[in-house]
Each structure stands twice: as C-alpha cells, then as structure tokens.
C-alpha cells in the first residue's frame, strides 16, 4: 500500500489462487491488487508476466508488480458471458475475435518461461481411458488422436493467454479486455478452443451444431486461422477439460454434450 500510495483497500474476491482487493491510488484512481497464494505462485506469476507483456492491448493493464503482488487496472464492467447468455452470442463471438487479434499482435521481448502447450495437455495424454464412462471412451480416443496430429504438424509458436473464454473477458471504458492468462506458448489457433465450451451455464447453446459452425467460421475469417485446425483444438480441449474434471471428481456432462458435435464438425471441415 505504501509502495504504490494506495488507500481504501477493500477485499472483493478470493479464489484458490489469489486474493483480490479494490484500492484507490492517491485518493482518486481506482485500481486492483492481486495477491498470489503460495501454492499457485509460479503459475500465477507466469500469467502475470504475460498480462504485463500485453501492455494493455486487449487485456487489463498491469501497472507494476512486486513479489507476490500485482498492481493492475480495475475492471468494473460485466463479463462477456452475460452477452452470450442473454441472446447476443454473435456479438460475443466478434468481441472474442477482436480481443484475440489484439493479444496476438507481434511484440518484442516475450516472457521466456511460458508453459509449452503440449505440457498443458499432459492430463489428456496420461489419463487412463477406463476413467471415462464406457460409452464415451471412443470420444476420448478420437480426441487424443486429433491432439497428437495437431502437435505433430508444425505451426507458429506464439505466447498464448491459454484460458480465454467469455467470462475471462470483461467490459471496460476501453472496450472488452481479457484477464487471468495462464501464460502458454503454442499454436495460435488453440487460443479460441475454450470458447466452444463456454459461456458457463450455457451447455445447450455450446452443443448446437450451428453455433459451433458459426464460431469456427468467425475465427477463420476474422483471425485467419485454419478452420479444421480450430475445430481440432476445440475437440482436443473439450476432452482435456473432461480429463481435468475426472481427476477432480466432477461430472463431465457439459463436455460430453459438446464433444460429439465438435468431432462431427471436425470430420466435415
């Protein structure tokens, strides 16, 4: 608080990885303090370094950091997921594409210790197929095969947000801005994979074949991504997400609703 001349510290959120405080600087400007928890320090530090590297383009601005604390822009808007959940999914898709185009702008001096995308997929490759429901094991096998082919085919390797979805994009006076990057490096087309499972609470929307096609078309036309590759990463990520939930003992109904539709779209692409 003394380092950055902050006052009126108000706790606003606690996650498994951090504490968030709303603060004022010099009694005027509202900002946020994010204090990292020890167990998640390395992962969060990596994401914080990437957020700072974005320089406020398409993402919340990091003003400074020290030790386990990040001093950053306060976003008091609503998540983009609200638009999708309230019948404005097409607008949300355009916003996501715009954010990605800003995040992926070439910049010098990228952080050096970003997590390779293949490492992010470790759970998919190491999961025992028998952990999946018997009727869904073919989905796991097909998705894993697609992931292997994607990794084996050379692609550009750029810094990735790594967890970009509707509710990690917040409105602000500067437009829609991303928060909470994971700090990965890999195929640019992976960046939009998580959007196919989202927004949270909209499983029926996510499983609609027409919506899947519309997302793939938008990301292909607006970002120049290969459409089949986008759908391949979407299917691979849905299976990865299911593996994470299986590890945590959570149900995978949402992933199982979307994955067959993603695989069918991939086959047709």
UniProtKB/TrEMBL annotation:
<dbReference type="InterPro" id="IPR006748">
    <property type="entry name" value="NH2Glyco/OHUrea_AB-resist_kin"/>
</dbReference>
<dbReference type="InterPro" id="IPR011009">
    <property type="entry name" value="Kinase-like_dom_sf"/>
</dbReference>
<dbReference type="GO" id="GO:0016773">
    <property type="term" value="F:phosphotransferase activity, alcohol group as acceptor"/>
</dbReference>
<dbReference type="GO" id="GO:0019748">
    <property type="term" value="P:secondary metabolic process"/>
</dbReference>
<protein>
    <recommendedName>
        <fullName>3'-kinase</fullName>
    </recommendedName>
</protein>
<dbReference type="Pfam" id="PF04655">
    <property type="entry name" value="APH_6_hur"/>
</dbReference>
């Amino acid at each position: 608080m003394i380092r950055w001349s902050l006052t009126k510290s108000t706790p606003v959120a606690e996650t498994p990885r951090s504490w968030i405080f709303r603060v004022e600087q010099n009694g005027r400007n509202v900002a946020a303090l994010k204090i990292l928890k020890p167990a998640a320090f390395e992962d969060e530090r990596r994401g914080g370094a990437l957020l700072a590297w974005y320089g406020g383009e398409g993402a919340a601005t990091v003003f400074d950091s020290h030790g386990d604390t990040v001093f950053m822009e306060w976003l008091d808007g609503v998540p983009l997921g609200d638009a999708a959940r309230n019948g404005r999914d097409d607008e949300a898709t355009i916003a996501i594409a715009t954010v990605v185009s800003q995040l992926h702008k070439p910049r010098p001096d990228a952080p050096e210790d970003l997590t390779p995308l293949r490492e992010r997929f470790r759970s998919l490759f190491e999961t025992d197929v028998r952990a999946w429901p018997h009727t869904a094991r073919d989905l796991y096998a097909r998705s894993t095969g697609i992931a292997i082919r994607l990794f084996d085919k050379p692609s550009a390797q750029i810094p990735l947000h790594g967890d970009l979805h509707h509710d990690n994009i917040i409105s602000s006076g500067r437009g829609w801005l991303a928060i909470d990057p994971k700090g990965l490096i890999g195929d640019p087309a992976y960046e939009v994979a998580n959007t196919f499972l989202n927004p949270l609470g909209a499983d029926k929307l996510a499983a609609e074949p027409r919506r899947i096609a519309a997302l793939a078309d938008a990301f292909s036309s607006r970002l120049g991504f290969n459409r089949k590759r986008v759908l391949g990463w979407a299917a691979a990520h849905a299976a990865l997400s299911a593996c994470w939930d299986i590890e945590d003992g959570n149900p995978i109904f949402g992933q199982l609703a979307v994955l067959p539709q993603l695989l069918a779209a991939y086959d047709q692409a």
